[in-house]
Amino acid sequence: MNNFKIAVLFRDIAGILQIKGDNPFRIRAYERAAQNLERLTGDIEHYIKNDSLTGIPGIGKDLGDKIIEFTRTGRIKTFEDLKKSIPEGVLELLSIPSVGPKTAGLLYEKLGIKNIAGLEKAIQGKKLAGISGIKQKTIDAILEGIELINKSKERMSLSKAIHLADEFIASLQILPEVKKISEAGSLRRRKETVRDIDILIVSPSPRPVMNTFVELPMAANISAHGDTKSSVRTHDGIQVDCRVVEEKSFGAALLYFTGSKNFNIKLRQIAVKKGLKLNEYGAFKNERCIAGKTEEELFKLLGMDYVEPELREDNGEIELALRSALPKLLDASQLNGDLHTHSTWSDGADSVREMAEAARERGYSYIAITDHSHSLKIARGLSVVDLKKKKKEIETVNRMFKDFWILYGTEVDIDSEGRLDYRDEILKEFDVVVAAVHSGFKQSKEQLTRRIVKACGNKYVHIIAHPTGRLWGARDAYAVDMEEIMKAASDTNTHLEINSSPDRLDLNDRNCRRAKELGIKLAVNTDAHAVKQLELIRLGVMTARRGWLEAKDVINTLSVDGLMKILRK
C-alpha cells in the first residue's frame, strides 16, 4: 500500500506548493507522479529493488529519491518542511475538489477555518456569504466536494481494494496451514468501490492462521481475534475480515460471503422450493449436508448454471441461469489490442516502439497510439507538424513487425462548443480517433451532452473516451444525458469506451449494460501512459463483465482487419 501512501503525500506537497504560488510545472509534476503511483499494478518496492523507479511516468531522480526516503523512513522531509510553512490544517481544505489555494487561504484569513469540519460549520452558520469573491455557486460547489470526500472515505476504489487484498492473501497463503484461500464480498464481485475486505480460508489448524493474520504489518488495530474469525483495521482504517472454514463447507461459505444479499435470498428461496436448506455451511436435505465443497456443485444442485461472481446482483442473472441462457462474459484473453494509449510524443513515458513491443508481448496483434491533440498543452498535445513526424515514426516501426500493427491515432479534444481540436482533413488521416472532453466540466447538462453528441456526429470520430469524465475521489461524473449520448452513438456507429484507469472505470457497469441493450459496441482500453500501465486492462475487463459484456460486444476483440471494417462510418 506504499503506492497509495506516497501518492497522498505527493498530492499534499502539490497542494502546499499551490498555496505558496510555486511553479505550476513543479506542482503538476507532483500531481502527475501521484496519479501514476496509484495506477501502478505492482508494489513500489519492486521498482526500487530493480532500480527502475525512473521508468515510472513522471518519476525522475528527485521524486525517485523521495520515494526511497519514504520506504526507508516512513516520511518525506520535503513535505515535513513545507507543512510548517502554512497554517496548520489549511492543507485539509485543499482536499476538497472545488477549493483551490486562493479560496483556502481566504477562508483561513477571514474566518480562521482550517479543516473540513470547521468549513461545514461555517456554511451551516451562513458565514461564507459575506466574504468577497465567494458566491452561492462557490458554496454549493464546496458542499458537493465535501460530499464527494465523505463518500470516498466510506469506500475505497476497486484498484485499492485489490492491492490490499492481494497483500493480505500473499502473506497468508504461504503458511503451511493454509490449504485454500480466496477473497469474497463485493471485491470478488468486482464492484467499482468496496467498503471492506473479506478473506476465506480452508485450514485444518485455524489458530496459527488467525494469530498470523492479526500480527501482519498491515494490521494497525485488532477488532476481533477468535479461533476461526478475526477482524483488523489497516493503517488507513479499512476493515479486513478473515474466516477459516472446513473444506466441506468452503464452496457454501464462498457463495454466501460473496453475496450479494439479494442474490443469496433468491438462491435460498429456490432451495426451499426443492426441499433444501441453503446456508454458509452447505445445502442440507433433512438436516444432512449433501453439498457445499464447491460453488459449482451447489449451483448444479439448484438446477442452475454457474453464475460468475460479477453477475451476482439479482439483476436477472438467476432467471437466465435457470434457463442456461447466461451471457458468456468477456475474458481478457479475447482482447486483440488496446485502442487508447499514449507515447512520448505527448505525455507518455515510453516510445512508440516500446509501447508496441509491450503490447505484442501481451499477445495483442495491434495497439493504437492516441497521443493528445494540440490544445491540451499540459499534456504536451501534438501540433500538426509533430503529427507528421509521429506518423512517419509509426510507419518505420511498423516495418519491424510481421504480425503486429501500430495504428496511427489521436485523443482529440472536444471543445466547449463540441468542435474538435483538429480539422477534418487532419482527422481523416488517422486510423483511430478517440474524442474526449477535458475541460468545461461545470457546463450545464444540456451543453455537455450537446458537445459529446456533436462529436459523435463527426464521421472521423470512432470512440468517445471516458464518456462521463469521473475521477474517483476527485470529481464526480459530469452531468450528461447518457441516454441521448447512447442514442447518438448508436445512430452514428460511434463506440463508447470503458477506460480501465483505476481512477476512472468509465463507462461504469450500469452504462455498459445499457449500451449492450442498445446494440452499441464498446472498446475496453487502458489510456496507458507507460508500458506497465497496459496491465490495467484487467480492471476494464472486470467492469465489462459486471456490465454483462461478451466478446461480440467489444470491438478490440476483433482482428485488425475486422476492426478497420467496423470503424468505417
Keywords:
5-stranded mixed β-sheet; Beta Polymerase, domain 3; 569 residues; 17 strands; globular; 24 helices; DNA polymerase, domain 1; Beta Polymerase, domain 2; 7-stranded parallel β-sheet
Describe this structure in words.
The protein is globular. The strands form 4 sheets. It has a 7-stranded parallel β-sheet, with helices on one face. It folds into 4 domains: 2-154, Orthogonal Bundle (DNA polymerase, domain 1); 156-245, Beta Polymerase, domain 2 (2-Layer Sandwich); 252-322, DNA polymerase, thumb domain (Beta Polymerase, domain 3), CATH 3.30.210.10; 332-566, TIM Barrel. The protein starts with a helix and ends with a helix. By secondary structure, the protein is α/β, with parallel strands linked by helices. The chain contains 24 helices and 17 strands.
